[in-house]
Amino acid sequence: MYVGRFVVVGPGIAAYRVSSRSFPDRRVVDRDGTLTVGPTADAPETDNPYVSYNCLRPAERAGEDLVVVGNGSHVDPVTEKLELGYPPRDALALSLLALDFEKDDYDTPRVAGVVSEDEAFVATVRRDALVVEAVEEPTLVATYETDSPEPFDLGAETASEAARELYDLDLEHPVCAAAATVGEAGVETAFHNG
After folding, report:
1. CA–CA separation, 191 vs 38, rounded Å?
2. What is the pLDDT at residue 170?
3. Could you give the CA distance from residue 61 to residue 71 in angstroms, rounded to a whole number?
4. Name one GO biological process term (predicted).
5. Strand, helix or coil at 163?
6. Taking phi first (over 0 means left), then psi (-120 to 50 degrees means alpha), and beta for anything else, what does residue 168 get?
7. Residue range 125-144: mean pLDDT, rounded
8. Cβ atoms 71, 9 nearer than 8 A
9. Which residues are 27's β-sheet partners?
10. How many CB atoms neighbour CB 35 within 10 A?
11. Positive or negative, the Cα torsion across 92, 97, 98, 101?
12. What distance, in Å, lies between the first and last C-alpha atoms of the chain?
C-alpha cells in the first residue's frame, strides 16, 4: 500500500517517513539539530517547492523541550509559534490553517505533530478538514489512505530505532526517515537514509 509521507507521534517520541513515487532521490541531513529533507547529489533538478523542507525541529517553550515533525514547510511556523509560547494545539492549528493543504496535483494533505516528554499532538489539514488531536499513544497520520489519525503500534524506544522502524515498514516507496525522543536528558534525534 502507498500512503505517501507520514508522521507517528506519541508522548516522548516523534517520527516521520518520506515515501515517494515521484521524487525518490532525497535524504535527511542534520543541520545543527534540525533535520532537513532534500535532494541527493545525483537527483534531477526540480522547481517543486515540496521536495526540500525541515521535517523535524526541536523547540523550547517555557523551559520545556518539544519536537515538531511534519511533511513540509509548516514545521517552521509551528516551531516558531511554540517558542513564542503558544500551546501545541494552537501552534499546529494556526500554522496548518494558514498554509492549508499542498497545492499540487493531488491536493496533498499536510501532516504534523508536536511532542513533549508527557504529551503529543497530531494534526492534518486536507481539502475537507483541519484535524488536531491530543494523543496518549503512538498515532499515525499520512498524506494518502490514512489521512485521519489512527493508533499505531510503534515498538521503538530510541530515536534511532524509530527512524529505522518507520523506514522498514511494509509500505511502498520508502525514501528516508527521521525521528526524535524527548525525555529527562532532553531531545535525541536520528535519521535513516535508504
Report:
1. 13
2. 96
3. 22
4. 'de novo' IMP biosynthetic process
5. helix
6. alpha
7. 97
8. no
9. 38
10. 27
11. positive
12. 18
Burial of 25 (0-12, 13-18, 19+ CB in 10 A): middle
Domains and CATH numbers, the chain: 6-37+52-193 (3.60.20.20)
* 87-100 pLDDT per residue, tens: 999 999 999 999 99
3-class DSSP assignment, residue 50: coil
Q: What is the 3-state secondary structure (H, E, C) of 64-129?
A: EEEEEEECCCCHHHHHHHHHCCCCHHHHHHHHHHHHCCCCCCCCCCEEEEEECCCCEEEEEEECCE
Question: How many residues does this entry show for the chain?
Answer: 194
Rounded CA separation 175/162 (Å) = 15
Residue 49, pLDDT > 90, answer: no
The pLDDT tens digits for 28-46 are 999 999 999 999 988 888 8
- The whole-angstrom separation of Cα 100 and Cα 52 is 18
Quick one: pLDDT at residue 21?
Answer: 86
Please state, for a pLDDT cut of 70, what percent of the chain lies above it.
100
Cell numbers found for residue 114:
508536536
